[in-house]
Amino acid sequence: MPALVTPFHPDERIDCGTWQRLIDRMIAAGVDGLFVGGSSGEFYALDPEERALTLRFCVQATAGRVTLFANVGCITTRETVRLADSAQGMGVNALVVITPYYLKPTQDELAEHYIEICRAVRLPVLAYNFPQHGGVEILPETLCRIATRCENMMGLKDSSGNLEQTVAYRTCAPGRELAVFVGSEGILLDGWQRGCHGAVTACANIAPRLFVDLYRAWREGRLEEAGRLQVLAAELGQAGGLHTFPSVLKEAMRLAGFPAGNCRRPIGPMPEPALRQLAAVVDHLKREGCLA
Predict the structure, then answer these.
(1) Active-site annotation holder among 44, 104, 114, 128
(2) What are 132-152's pLDDT values in tens digits?
């Protein structure tokens, strides 16, 4: 599942026309679902009305063609429940809840946060662990506590990059296997080979066919081809560190011929040396036929 970017006009208004084209491109490439309102979608830069608007638009733009996962995580439980209830009424298929950022809540506080959200909705809920940006990590034993008390806690998207912990989430709850989606491009194949369910990757905005083909090659047992594509995916993921997240995504999309505007300020343009490095990565993907 691509973690969708949010396209903006030059004046920072949401660009729905470009967004529709990008969504259609993702679906035509064969993705299994779409993840909207995540970190690469700059949810932190959207006001509450815009967050609701983006979810409503993506429900309409997707039109039931693929599963739609919507991040409704906010800094407080109250606001998260409010947005979760709104998203549920719009027709999204599953809710995603990133850990509350800035506060660094304890594991007990995280458990109560997720339990209250799960009990407030009917939809499946996916936790979202991104400690590099959220400032806090949800541990497997905490996810176990939540899943034990809430049947609709379906699993977790893990962007920590810690393979052992990513795998541990799967079987942390007795009697249940949770769905775990890998978020770090460098360990996709390793995670799948150890039982993870799939991937939610921001880099699929740039090269959706690369990640679709990688997943299919693994599922079909074509491990040599899967290994080749995993190297390309890791190279692209590593390029994300060339500048402020998520500006590299949008710059790479522009270089690939699928522009989505700039990020909202204070994120600015990439410095020229970093841009040259990124262009080399995108050119490599073009030569490998990954940008069709």
Answers:
(1) 128
(2) 888 899 999 999 999 999 999
- Sign (positive/negative) of CA torsion 25, 26, 29, 30? negative
Q: Report pLDDT digits (tens) over 200-244.
A: 999 999 999 999 999 999 999 999 999 999 999 999 999 999 999
- Domain positions in the chain: 16-226
Q: Which of 104, 114, 157, 286 is flagged as catalytic?
A: 157
- For domain 16-226, the question of CATH label 3.20.20.70 is answered with yes
Query: Whose CA is closest to 39, among 154, 140, 135?
Result: 135
Q: 253: burial class by Cβ within 10 Å (0-12, 13-18, 19+)?
A: buried
If 0-12 CB within 10 Å is exposed, 13-18 middle and 19+ buried, where does residue 241 land? Answer: exposed
* Annotation marks residue 157 as catalytic: yes
Residue 66 neighbours by CB distance under 10 Å: 18
